[in-house]
Amino acid sequence: MKNFHITLWSFFFGILLCQAQYTEEDWPERDQWMKTESLLELSGIQKDDKVADIGCHEGYLSMHLARLVQENGRVYAVDVRSDRLENLRENAADRNLRNIITILGDYDDPRLPKDELDAVFIIDTYHEMDSYETILRHVKNALKNGGKLLLLEKLKDRVRGKTRQEQVNAHSLAPEYVRRELEQAGFTIISEIVDHGDWERDSSKQMWVLLAVKGS
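^ that's the sequence the OP posted. Answer follows.
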C-alpha cells in the first residue's frame, strides 16, 4: 500500500510539473534556459510582421512576439485547448497587448490565414502532432513566399537513436526525423542549431532548433 501511494503521488506530481512548465511564474527563468532572445533574433522577424505561435499554451512566446512586431503587427496564438487561450487573453490584457489573435485549432489544422504570415513558431509541440504532414501543409499555405518556420524540440538521452514513435511516446524527437519531414513538405532548411542547451536545465534533455523557409 505504501508503494502504491508513492506511485500515485509521483503520477500526480508529474502531471503538475507538465502543467506548470508553461505557467506565467516560470517565464523569466524560461527566458534564460531557452535563450529566447537568440531564437527571436534567429527568426529575423521585425516590426509590423504577422506571425503565428502554434501550441501557445498560456502565451509565453506570444507575449514576446507581440512586443516585437508592435501594434501594427499580428500574432496568431494557436492552441487546441480553450482554457489555455482564455489564460493567454488575460495575460495579454494585463500587459496591454492588443495585437494577439487567439485561434482554437484542430489537432490536424491550426486554422491560420492563407498566404499571410512572415513566420511560424512551433516550440516543444511538434512531437505532439500525430498529423504532422497535414499540419506542415497548412503551415506552408499560411506562410508568404519566403516565410519562415522556426521549430524547437528536445531530445532525451534515453530515447536517442530510437525510432520516431519511441521518441514521440517519450515526448521527445530527434532533428533528423524533422529535417526530412520539413524537406518533404517543401521547406528548405536555412539554419540548424544542434545543441541549443538543456531543456529546463536538465542535462538529459538537449534542445535543438531548425529554421526553414517556404519556397516559391
